[in-house]
Design a protein that fits this description.
401 residues; 2 domains; 12 helices; alpha/beta; Rossmann fold; single chain; globular; 5-stranded antiparallel sheet; 8-stranded mixed sheet
Amino acid sequence: MLGAPVRYTANSEGWVIGSRLGLQKPPGAVCRVVLGKTCLFSISITRHCLALILLGDKVHAILSPFPFHYLCDMRGFLTVPFFAQALRPLWLILLCALSSLAEAQIATRPIPKMMGPGTPAKNIQAYQIFDAKGKKVSYAQFLATITKSLQQTAPQPAVILFGELHDNPIVHWLQLELTHDAFDQHGANLMLGFEMFEQDQQAVLSRYLNGGFPEKSLKDSLRLWPNYETDYAPLIEFAKVNKLPCIADNIQRKYASLLFKKGRAALDTLPESIKQQIVPLTFAFDTTLSQYQGMKEMGAHMGPGMGWRMVEAQAIKDATMAHFILHNPWRKPSTVHLHFNGAYHSDFYQGIMWYVEQEAPQMKILTITTVSQDDVKKLDKEHYGQADFIICVPGNMTSTH
């Protein structure tokens, strides 16, 4: 009983190993073993301490309401020889008294309620997929619908625009899963495209995919996003192993910024080699699209005309990505282009999709988007029609950067 001294025999050298003590640890106790001929073992229970004191060839177990090293040595946990032989009985009496107090406190402490057999665990759902009308679908149904839809137009080319929340780990996992499944269906006809790589990086990215240099050189050579290692590297490595082309189809950020600051005319002064990495500067700009209208309102506070400048800077990104989805040297008549972009670039069948349809109105395009809600079990009506499939993730989901 943990209130009176309990004796355990030490070995011939006066050492006691914790596993030989036969002590029953209380739930949540933290064990600490100190090998030596003084204090050999302690169990911290909140602010209580079970101390084993070596007296001669015996070990005494004392439950103390204070950390034992406070009672023994303020300079450290028994770093100096134990008490003088004459003082040991006095300390033992003191610790026995303290142990009685500790036992009384423990006896009155409420016992935590344990979950009984058969009690259901809390149901935590990491995501839920919905169709455009807000109906729940499983991943298997989601994949089957995509497969069937693409088979109906095969062998014509098709595009899947996968809109993501950039730092959501569940979505990046689903992107990788869909890539694996799409490869199983389409093999070498599958192509991956990325908002996260800009057109001037295409040569370096392609060289890496072809085994031209190690991964470290890729990281040293390109402007990679902060979450590349966790979120995009698995896709790139899968493409490398399976010899799939990857398209770096975004405009360089600095040129989108130049348009925002000085207008489209400022891009006319760029070298021709840079213009080849951007959609033709005569690209259309539909100011009636709801996504652009909403962005314009967000940017209206920046000054006269700046709201539309911000929208046009977004539009040139959408137009450039659409341009290189349709125009790249790896595209074949039967290509299925799985494209990863921020959700805003393709939500409500606008952005990239609008530009693809302007040039290729017969192209089969499927869209996926990601939304965040406190409750993922039912889709908020504001998200109906946002894409062909809506992946709903919890609002308190951890982020990758």
